[in-house]
Amino acid sequence: MTNPAERLVDLLDLERIEVNIFRGRSPQESLQRVFGGQVAGQALVAAGRTTDGDRPVHSLHAYFLRPGRPGVPIVYQVERMRDGRSFTTRRVTAVQQGRTIFNLTASFHKPEEGTFEHQLPPAREVPDPESLPTVTEEIREHLGELPDALERMARRQPFDIRYVDRLRWTPDEIKGAEPRSTVWMRAVGDLGDDPLVHTCALTYASDMTLLDAVRIPVEPLWGPRGFDMASLDHAMWFHRPFRTDEWFLYDQESPIATGGRGLARGRIYDRAGNLLVSVVQEGLFRPYNTGNKSTP
User: Annotated catalytic, 281?
Assistant: First the structure.
């Protein structure tokens, strides 16, 4: 497969090896650890595969316990905690080489009509995604051409990401910057019509840029990094149906960073301004020069 969106769907298509046990691939990448969004997305697939399929996911809460090793399969063990009249609850444990690296609890809710409805509007107006350059275009504009490693990464990237406030490259560009980042995103190809695939693909994407909001006031998003970082936990609430292969706006902010940890909140909207998903994550941040790796 050459289409990155097809590769993402394939990555989320777990092998069932027992009634409540699944195995997921972990591609061999030039990364220190498996991307957290991949593990979260695969774990949610495992949870969803043990339900009847008539109840969409309404929330998930997860902890990243150990870094996963690229290239090594991950086994997902599902515990069927509850099958109620309106709600279904699953707990998933991700195991790699005999060690638990991640756990997730997901709740599924039978659709029903609410007695009222409201939402806060988006915090600000933003330009349309078509008017903004892609990340790859911004890097080429700044560097002239992509280094080989970035070129290979760009070809494998399953999401088109466009920063509303453009990338920041120098310390001068981040002076006075608020801890906030807003991006347009969508899968680079069709993801099919399975709602669970779209939910799990969005779960994958939700971990890609969220901690940018923590970093923006202290270092440029691109270029040499002063901090290593790792996701500690992740929570999502799914409010409305959506397609991840259509443009969505990811508005992200960090209300606090202290004690080596930074908290980030995200709100995901469709182009009409409807709030689709709410996200909260805490990340661990450690200076590179201390010799400490960001491993929880």
Answer: yes
DSSP letter, residue 212? H
For residue range 174-223, list pLDDT tens digits in order. Answer: 888 899 999 999 999 999 999 999 999 999 999 999 999 999 888 887 76
Number of residues in the chain: 296
Residue 92: predicted pLDDT? 98
Among residues 38, 96, 107, 281, the one annotated as catalytic is 281
Ordered strands of the 248-258 beta sheet: 15-18, 21-24, 74-83, 87-96, 99-109, 57-64, 227-238, 275-287, 261-269, 248-258, 180-187, 159-163
The single residue of 38, 107, 181, 231 carrying the catalytic annotation is: 231
Higher pLDDT: 124 or 104? It is: 104
Residue 216, classed as helix, strand or coil, is coil
Q: Where are the beta strands (DSSP E) in the chain?
A: 15-18, 21-24, 57-64, 74-83, 87-96, 99-109, 159-163, 180-187, 227-238, 248-258, 261-269, 275-287
Percent of the chain with pLDDT over 70: 93
**pTM more than 0.70:** yes
- Is 251 catalytic? The answer is no
The reported pLDDT for the residue numbered 31 is: 64
Active site residue 52: no
Tokens, residue 276: 């689709």
